[in-house]
Structures are given as C-alpha cells and as structure tokens.
Specification:
Chain A is an alpha+beta fold. Helices cover 48% and strands 22% of the residues of chain A. Classes of the chains: A alpha+beta, B alpha/beta.
Chain lengths: 439, 300
C-alpha cells in the first residue's frame, strides 16, 4: 500500500514529469522551428547560386554570340601559338570546324606555315606586354590574293605575366582595292587637269607640223624635195600623228565626258568589238561567244562601251598573238582561244573577255590601269587604252578588273543594269575631269 | 575665170604658211597674224573669204569676223581652231558664224577645201561634193511614204554593215534624219506641221525625200534631202547649243540633230530656204584624223 506520506512526492513526481515533458516538447518545437528556418535559409542560398550560375552562363553566351557575330576573325592563343578559342568567322575563314582547330598552332591553321610568321604580332605582344595593331599580312587562297591586318592584344594574369594573346584579324582585301581605285581615280583626274591645260597648246603646232608635211608630200616639186627628203617628211608626218594619237587619248581621259544612255544589246556590242580584230591583223585564233540567252538590253552609252570592249578585246588578242610568237620560238604546241561572255547576275551585267595569251605578271596587275603603262614597243599603242576603259566603266558606275590565273587571263566588266527612267535617251551625266576653257 | 581672194588670219606662223601653201594653188591668198592687221588689210582690198583662228592674242577670231561681216557683208567667213569646236557653238550663234573647221592631225585639207569652195561658189548641195575623187554613189532613193522610209533605212544599214563590217549608229541617225524630213519639214500654208509623228504618212506629189548613200577610200556618207527648206541655221545652232549645255534633255525636237552630230564623225547641214534641206552625215573608216568635229552649216 502506498502511504499517505508518499502521496505528495508522487504528485510532485508527476508534476515534475509533466513539466519535463513540456520543456521537451517546447525544445522540440523550437528545434523544429530552427531547422525549418535553417533549411529555408539553405534553399534561399541555393537559388541565389543558381541565379548566379545562370547569369554567368548568359553572359558567356552573350560573349560567345558577340564573338561569333563579328565578321572579323578572332582567335585566342597561348604563348606557344596554340589555339584556345576561335570565333565562327575564323573557322569559316580557314574552312574548318571550330573543334578541329582548337589545340592546333595558329600559323599552321591560318597561313599553313610550320613555324611562326615573320613579324608575328603575337610574339611582339608577348615580349612587349602591349597591344600590337594592324600588321599587314597577305595570303593567297583559291588563286586569289587576299590582304589582312592582324592585331594582337595581351591577356595577363594577376602577376602581370602574359598568359593568352588575342589575335584580331581583319580582311582588308576590298578596302585595299577601293583605296587603290580611289588613288587611280585621283591620278586620272590629275592627269586630266594637266592635259586639258597643255593639249590644245600642243594640238595647234602639231596640226601645223602635220599639215605642212602633207603639203610637202603632195606638192613636193614646189618645195624642191627629192625622194630622200620625202622619206624624211613622211617620218615627220607619222611622228606627228603618233604624238597626236597620244594627245587624243589623253584628252579622252580629261574631257568632260558625256554618257549618252540608250538601250543597247551587249551581244551585238561584243560582236562589234570582235569585228575590229581582223582588219588590224589580229586573227588566226578561235573566238568563242558565250552570251546568255534572253540577255536584257541595257541602258548605257553604246559607243563608249564598244570603245571599252574594243580595247579589252584587242589586248586579249594581242596577248594571244604574243603567246603564239613565244611558243613558236620555243617550238611548243599552242592554239589561241579568245572567249567573250556575258551574263546577268541579279542587277548586274557581267561581261568577261578571257584569253590564253601571255597573261599579266602578278606584279603588274596593280599597274595595268595606270596611264602610260604599256608592254608594247614605242609607237604600238599609247598605253592609255585600259585607262580609258577604266574611265568609261567608272562613268557607267561599273567595275573592271583584269587577272591572270593559271595561264588564263580574264578581264571582267561589271555594269549595273539600271531601271531608272531618268537615264533615258538623251539624259546625260556630265563629269568634268579638267577645265574647259572658253574665249 | 576670176580668182577668189582669201585672207588667212592665225597667230601661229606655221599654220599660216601651211594654209597659204595649200590655198595658193587655187586662190589668191594673203595672211595676217592678228585681228588688227587683218582689219587693216581689209580696208585696202576686198576679200571674198576670211579664214580666222579663234584663239589669238588680242582680238579673238569670232570678234574679228563679226567686225568684217559688219563692214563687208559680201565677204564670207569661217573659223579654224585646235580647240574643241563644241566650246564655241555659243560664240558662233552669237556672231552668226556657221562654219568652224578643226585643226586635225593630219590636217584634213579635203574637208577645208570643200567648205571653202561651198562658201565661195554657193554650190553646196550634193553628197558627191563631200566625198573624195575615188567616190562611188551606191544608191539613191526617193521616199514618198513612211513605209518606204523604213525599207530604205533597213536597206542602207544592211549595205553598210555588209560592206564595212559595222554600221555604227547609222540606223539611229537615219531614223532621226528621215523622221525630220518626213514629219517636221512639210507644213501647210499656215506653217503648221502637216503630218503627225509615228503615224503612217503618204507624201503629196509635190513633196519628196531623197536619200543617197556613197563612199570613198576613207569614209562613207549618207545624205537625206527634203524639198521644203524649213530648217533654219539659227534653229540648228540653238538646238546644238542647248543640248551641249545639257538643257535640251527633255525637248521634243532638236535632239536628233545633236545626237546625229554626236554619233557621226561629220554632220553637214545645207539649207536653201523654202526650197531644199540637205543633211549629210559621214563616218571615217579609221580614226584617220584625230581632232574635234567641225561645225558645218551652209545656207544660200
């Protein structure tokens, strides 16, 4: 039996037990709350990290897209020329997939060279620890000479040591070509001003010389001229004619040029140009015409375009004649072919005159449109033919180029096909090369 | 036969002597080296023709000729120049000078000779006058309708293409010239054009258009003649001048003359008012004469 004396102890025990339970429960609750708090905090931290990662990913993507969107070629290399990264333009340029490029040497990939290029900008950047800008390079791809500028920028670690180098490669082929064109135009304009100033002053005495020589030949008795004298006078007349031909061509370059536009058929202009060859003894080779069917008539100054075509076609025929002479000397089989082609590509008329004649040496390619550049002996051409062509095509807002590749020379004339009604018959575009003096 | 007297004025002595040497064969020739000397000579003797250079120190050619024409209306005048004739159309119009011969290399004596003879004898018509002695007149057509005009144009173009390889812009020029002769020349009593352009036309018995085609050893030429004589030299000068200055671009008329002059090596216009208009254009086979194109309008 339980004694009454023990009852309070039991009661106390029960109360203490209950209190203990309560404390435990409270602690438990508190702990739970804390855990919940903690886990909540943890989750929050996790989201932030994710967001950060997302940000980094996005920024990387942005950079990559920017990197790839650039038309300039960009390449990141280490200090040993090993490619770490390239952009899409770079890969396109070298015609390979990005991942096949990584890890390769840049000089091998871009220039197909086993060792670093001479005057390599990356090398200099590495040693100088500063950017090296726009160093000119060139390479030929598919028989086409292309020009680049390469700049190199150093990427340093925290100690300031160069670890990576960024190469920025720009294709400046077109830019260079435009620049050359500009210089050429300015050169022509300069010659124009000079010529306009002196041509007339020279024409006057020249026609006096020629006219007097003609008189002396037609009325030789009156001048007491014997056969030897007549021979010499004939030479004088011929020389004055030669001088006059140069003046005429120069004036053609300098005069205010009128472009009288009318509808013209390129096919018949090509045939007309080819018809000029035989009378001047340039024949004995095959002439092929490759003129696209349904070629539209186009607005141009037909007599001027014909003149330009005659010049180009004559050059081609002369190149064939020269080649024939050369091969005959060296006893090699040769048969000349002159090919005249015209086709339409979108809004442009493309005319090509192709020959397998002697060709233009690469170093002369940039000079052939220069006034007085000639490979012919004195008296056989003024060296102004292609300059005049250039001028004519320029007046028509077109382009002309001549290149020799693998023994085949192609002169390409590109003319815009205009649909502007204002350029109708009689409409004229007047350009002034020099002064036009008036009394 | 009376020998015509010609005065040659040029500051370049070589040109003076050269012209004198050539002209002496057929004419009595004097020369002067500037305008004042020329005027002084004119007071002493009467010249049938004065040929003057344009650009001389002191008095310029056009001014001199204008002065001479004022004092001696019977004297014929012409200009020669080494400069671009087109630059002087304005001056020519102002002073009423219609013949300007360029100094070409070699000098084109035949051309000079024909113009001088035309001025002195007033015998200007006929394509045979403008071709050399070895000429051949290949065809002469009489056109009575617009239909015939088309056939003649085709014919001549084909003949030239067959003979010389290229017919150049012959068709275009003929088109312009014949259109002028058929549609622009005939008028009724009130001076109103009788026929509308592009419409089929049958000319009346009193109206005709002649076309001749011939060549010599250096060039070929085509003459288009109508018997109306309505074209005036002033009109021609006005039109050419306007077009050269780029103002006539949108004009309905006059473009033909300018274009023909631009495309052909030579364009000669001969006028007998109310009787006959003859337009001759010629192309040289080779670029034999380097220099500018002349201005050649004759009116009797």
């Amino acid at each position: 039996m339980i004694s009454f004396a023990s009852i309070p102890w039991i009661l106390f025990g029960i109360v203490a037990f209950v209190v203990l339970l309560c404390i435990l429960a409270y602690q438990n609750l508190k702990l739970r709350h804390r855990t919940a708090q903690l886990s909540e905090e943890l989750t929050r931290e996790e989201t932030e990290e994710e967001q950060l990662a997302l940000k980094i990913w996005l920024s990387k993507k942005q950079l990559e897209t920017t990197f790839d969107a650039l038309s300039d070629r960009i390449c990141v290399i280490d200090t040993d020329f090993t490619i770490l990264r390239v952009n899409k333009a770079y890969a396109d340029e070298v015609g390979r997939r990005i991942r096949t490029i990584l890890g390769k040497k840049c000089h091998l990939v871009f220039f197909n060279r086993k060792s670093a290029c001479d005057n390599c900008p990356a090398l200099e950047t590495h040693s100088m620890i500063q950017a090296v800008k726009e160093r000119p390079f060139s390479k030929s791809a598919d028989g086409e000479e292309r020009s680049f500028t390469i700049s190199a920028y150093p990427v340093c670690d925290e100690k300031g040591t160069v670890v990576n180098i960024i190469e920025h490669i720009r294709d400046v082929t077109e830019e260079k070509r435009m620049n050359e064109q500009l210089i050429r135009s300015e050169k022509l304009a300069g010659i124009g001003i000079l010529t306009a100033g002196i041509a007339h002053e020279i024409n006057n005495p020249l026609s006096g010389i020629a006219g007097t020589a003609e008189n002396m030949l037609s009325m030789h008795d009156k001048y007491g001229l014997n056969d030897k004298g007549r021979e010499r006078i004939t030479t004088i007349l011929e020389c004055s004619q030669r001088a006059s031909a140069i003046m005429r061509d120069l004036l053609r370059l300098s005069q205010k040029q009128e472009v009288v536009r009318q509808q013209a058929d390129i096919k018949s202009l090509l045939h007309k140009a080819a018809a000029h060859l035989q009378p001047i003894g340039l024949d004995g080779f095959a002439i092929e015409f490759h003129v696209e069917e349904d070629l539209p008539r186009m607005r141009c100054d037909p007599s001027k375009i014909e003149q330009a075509l005659v010049n180009v076609v004559k050059n081609a025929a002369q190149a064939i004649a020269d080649q024939r002479k050369k091969t005959r000397r060296e006893k090699i089989d040769y048969s000349g072919v002159l090919c005249l082609a015209a086709r339409r590509v979108e809004n442009e008329m493309i005319i090509e005159v192709v020959d397998n004649g002697v060709g233009i040496p690469p170093e002369a390619e940039s000079q052939i449109f220069d006034p007085f550049y000639t490979t012919r002996p004195p008296g056989k051409g003024t060296g102004l033919g292609l300059s005049i062509c250039y001028r004519i095509i320029e007046e028509h807002q077109g382009q002309i180029s001549v290149v020799t590749r693998k023994g085949v020379t192609t002169a390409t004339i590109v003319l815009p096909i205009s649909k502007d009604p204002l350029t109708d018959i009689g409409a004229r575009i007047t350009t002034r090369g020099g002064g036009d003096e008036k009394v | 036969m009376k020998k015509y007297k010609i005065l040659v004025v040029d500051d370049e002595s070589l040109i003076r002597t050269m012209l004198c040497d050539y002209l002496e064969v057929a004419y009595t020739v004097s020369s002067a080296e500037n305008g004042m000397d020329a005027l002084a000579l004119c007071t002493r003797e009467r010249f049938d023709l004065v040929i003057s250079d344009i650009n001389m120190p002191g008095m310029k050619g056009p001014k001199l000729l204008h002065e001479i024409k004022k004092q001696y209306p019977e004297t014929k005048i012409m200009l020669i120049t080494a400069y671009n004739v087109d630059d002087y159309i304005r001056v020519a119009k102002e002073y009423g000078i219609t013949n300007i011969i360029p100094k070409t290399v070699p000098f084109n004596y035949d051309e000079l000779g024909v113009v001088i003879d035309g001025l002195l004898t007033e015998n200007i018509f006929g394509i045979e006058r403008y071709l050399l002695a070895d000429q051949r007149i290949e065809r002469t057509y009489c056109i009575k309708s617009s239909e015939e005009a088309k056939t003649v144009r085709e014919n001549v173009t084909q003949l030239i293409a067959a003979k010389f390889g290229s017919s150049g812009d012959v068709k275009l020029i003929m088109d312009e010239m014949i259109t002028n002769a058929i549609y622009h020349a005939p008028t009724n009593e009130n001076g109103i054009k009788k026929y509308e352009e592009y419409m089929p036309v049958q000319l009346e018995p009193s109206e005709y258009v002649y076309v001749s085609y011939g060549f010599d050893s250096e060039k070929y030429g085509i003459a288009v003649i109508d018997n109306q004589g309505r074209l005036k030299k002033e009109t021609v000068l006005y039109k050419i001048d306007r077009h050269l200055r780029g103002e006539g671009m949108l004009d309905d008329s006059g473009r033909g003359i300018h274009m023909s002059r631009l495309f052909a090596d030579r364009l000669i216009i001969n006028i007998h008012p109310h009787a006959k208009t003859e337009v001759i254009f010629m192309n040289y086979f080779l670029n034999k004469y380097s220099g500018y194109k002349p201005l050649c309008i004759n009116e009797i």
